């Protein structure tokens, strides 16, 4: 066990915290916390994450992480040469606006055609009116035929059941509205941003890496959902099936390099923290 690991472990025991309690506080997996105490840094994903995890461990047990790193810097592994993307200074919500304009030339071509069509319809309507009036006048001037001459009465044939069924118009049936999927921001606390998801069955979370970043995803029972917790490289993608999951926690080491989408809906980062947790609580609409 290293001197730094011994110092951290003693502080944890002094606060009466188990590794499981520390895992809940820091969101760092228990095996990495044990590796820090044992001085086994080779199991970590990289030197950057060794320093980051030690700082989080120290803060959770009431110690100054920067002072510990400076004091025991000989125990630290060499720094990684990983090119990181520059974090954006501000965050703006993405919005798209589409403005459709029609040129004056287009209106100039359409208006004459509309006027011509209107006059044609007007002429046809007037012609039909005079034709109908003339027809009604001729009918009124015809002599009445002899009252003794009439049209023989024919008893109507009763319609068959099939014909009766065909004459009944089917009443339209109102279809029930399909449930919509809704992703809502619940709260932001420290490094953790919590969302709620209400939607249809088969929810899926897609993780896409634009650059190197540590990524781990666990369910409500701390079971890993990704193929393995690791540093994802640019171009890598993971799709998680959350059909049997009530809660998913995604731990991200370099948020600017990771894009999260839930059934095609983009999940925004609400705070400019390099390392942070995205928690999604799922509720399926039947």
Automatic annotation (TrEMBL):
GO terms for molecular function: DNA binding. The keyword Cell membrane does not apply. Residues 139-179 are annotated as: Disordered. Keywords: Membrane, Transmembrane, Transmembrane helix. The chain crosses the membrane at residues 110-131. InterPro entries: Bact_Cytoskel_RodZ, Cro/C1-type_HTH, Lambda_DNA-bd_dom_sf, RodZ-like_C. The keyword Membrane applies. Residues 207-274 form the Cytoskeleton protein RodZ-like C-terminal domain. Pfam families: HTH_25, RodZ_C. This is Transcriptional regulator in cluster with unspecified monosaccharide ABC transporter. It comes from Planococcus halocryophilus.
């Amino acid at each position: 066990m290293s001197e730094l690991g011994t110092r951290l472990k003693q502080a944890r025991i002094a606060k009466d915290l188990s590794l499981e309690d520390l895992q809940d506080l820091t969101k760092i997996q228990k095996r990495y916390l044990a590796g820090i105490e044992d001085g086994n840094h080779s199991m970590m994903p990289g030197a950057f994450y060794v320093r980051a995890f030690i700082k989080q461990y120290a803060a959770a047990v009431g110690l100054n992480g920067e002072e510990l790193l400076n004091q025991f810097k000989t125990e630290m592994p060499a720094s990684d040469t990983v090119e990181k993307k520059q974090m954006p200074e501000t965050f703006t919500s993405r919005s798209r606006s589409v403005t459709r304009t029609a040129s004056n030339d287009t209106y100039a071509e359409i208006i004459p055609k509309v006027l011509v069509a209107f006059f044609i319809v007007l002429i046809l309507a007037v012609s039909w009116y005079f034709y109908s009036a003339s027809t009604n006048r001729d009918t009124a001037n015809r002599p009445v035929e002899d009252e003794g001459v009439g049209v023989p009465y024919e008893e109507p044939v009763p319609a068959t059941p099939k014909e009766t069924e065909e004459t009944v118009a089917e009443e339209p049936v109102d279809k029930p509205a399909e449930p919509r999927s809704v992703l809502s921001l619940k709260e932001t606390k420290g490094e953790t941003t919590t969302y709620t998801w209400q939607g249809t069955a088969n929810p899926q979370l897609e993780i896409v890496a634009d650059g190197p970043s540590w990524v781990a995803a666990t369910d409500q029972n701390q079971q890993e959902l990704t193929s393995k917790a690791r540093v994802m490289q640019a171009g890598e993608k993971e799709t998680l099936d959350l059909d049997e999951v009530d809660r998913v926690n995604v731990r991200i080491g370099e948020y600017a390099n990771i894009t999260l989408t839930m059934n095609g809906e983009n999940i925004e980062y609400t705070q400019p923290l390099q390392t942070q947790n995205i928690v999604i609580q799922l509720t399926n609409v039947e």
